[in-house]
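Hi team,

As requested, here is the filled-out complex form for the EPU run. I kept the field names the same as last time so the parser does not choke. Let me know if anything looks off before we queue the next batch.

— J.
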Amino acid sequence: MNISWNHSLLKENTFGMDVSAACHVDYSTPEELTGFFASGRQFDLPKPFLHIGKGSNLLFTGDFPGTVFHSSIKYISRLSDADGRVRVEVGAGTDWDEFCLWCASNELWGPENLSGIPGETGAAAVQNIGAYGVEFKDIVTEVHCFDAVTCSIRTISKDDCRYGYRDSIFKQSAKGRYIVISAVFVLEKDGLPRLEYGHVRAAVENMSGDAHGRITPGLVRSAILGIRNSRLPDPSVTGNAGSFFKNPVVPRSMYEKVANYARSKYGPDYQVPHFDAGSGFIKIPAAWLIEQCGWKGYAEGNVGVYSKQPLVLINATGKALPSEIIVLEKKIIVSVLDRFGIELKPEVDHI
Ligand code: EPU
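And here is what came back:
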C-alpha cells in the first residue's frame, strides 16, 4: 500500500489538469485493500474518498481535499476454456486496451470494438464503456468487488450491475460502497465481427484479412484503432476526457422540432442523424447539435472544441485551468438549449 500526501494528479487525469489530492492511496492486491479497511486506517485519511482509474473520464474542478484511491491490481487470467468459449478474469488496474490487445493476440472475440478506449478495467466496469456498437455489458459476466460495508469481497452478476448507457449500480445506489477488484468476461473463439456501426464495415473491408482472407479480432481491432485515431485526439498529446457530453435521448416530438429546423435550413431532404431509443424516444448525437451551434474547432485561451469531433473538449495548450473548461462547457450547453430546447448533460464526471 503506497500512501502519499499532497499528491500531484497531473499525470492521473487525461485532461491534464494540474491539481493535487490531499492524500493518495495505491494498492496492488485485493488482500492489501481488505487489510487496510479491516485495520480501520481509513478513518485517519481525509474525506471524501474517490476511486479513480486512469482519470480518463473526469474533470477535476480544483485541488481534491480528500483521498484518491487507485488500484494497481493488474492481471489477465484464463479461467476456463470449453465449447469455444474462454472465461477470462482481468484485474481492475489492468489497462483496458492491454486487455483488448491480449484478446486480439489470442484470436478471441469480445472487446475488439472497444479497442483504444483510454482507461482501466475497473473504471470500464463502473462506466459501462461503449463504442462502435458494443458496450462493456455485452461481454462481461460478473464483477468482483470489495464491499466497504461488510469489508469483504463479493461477486456481482452482470444483471445485478444494472448496466445502462454509461451507467451502472456503481454510479447509482451502490456509489461509494463497492470498489471493483476484477471483472470476468466470456470471449468467443469463433465469434462474429460486429460491423454495423457507422463506418466500421467499410474500414474493415478496406483491410486485407489474414492469410485465408478471414476477418480476425485483430483486423477489427486495427480498423477500430484507425477510426479512433482519425477522429479522436490522443490524450497523451492533447489533454481530453473523450466525449464530454452524453448523447441526449429526447421524446419524438422534440426530435421532430429539430428535424423541422434542419429541413428549413438545409432543404426538405435533409436527415438529422438519430437513433431509435425505443418507447417513443430518439437519441440525437450531441456532436451534431454542438456542430450546428458553430462550436466545431472553436478555440479560446487554453481550451477548445476538437476540430474532428465536437463532442470532445480539449486542453489545447496543456495549461488549461478547470475553470476554463467549465466556462466553455456552460457556453455550449446554453447555446444548444437556446437553439434546440435540449439540455446537454456532461458525460465526464466533475470532481
Ligand atoms: N457527428 C456530427 N459531427 C461530427 C461528428 C459526429 O454531426 O463532427 C454526428 C454524425 O452524425 C455521426 C454521429 O454524430 O454519425 C455519431 O458520431 P460518432 O460515431 O463519432 O459517435 P458519438 O455519438 O459522437 C459515441 C460515444 C463515443 C464512442 C462513439 C463511437 C457517447 C457520449 N460517445 O460518440 O464514446 O467512441 O460513439 O461508438 O456516447 C466516450 O464515451 O468518451 C466516447 C468517445
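Two things worth flagging: The domain at 76-231 is CATH 3.30.465.10 (Uridine Diphospho-n-acetylenolpyruvylglucosamine Reductase; domain 3). The mean pLDDT is 97.

Thanks,
J.
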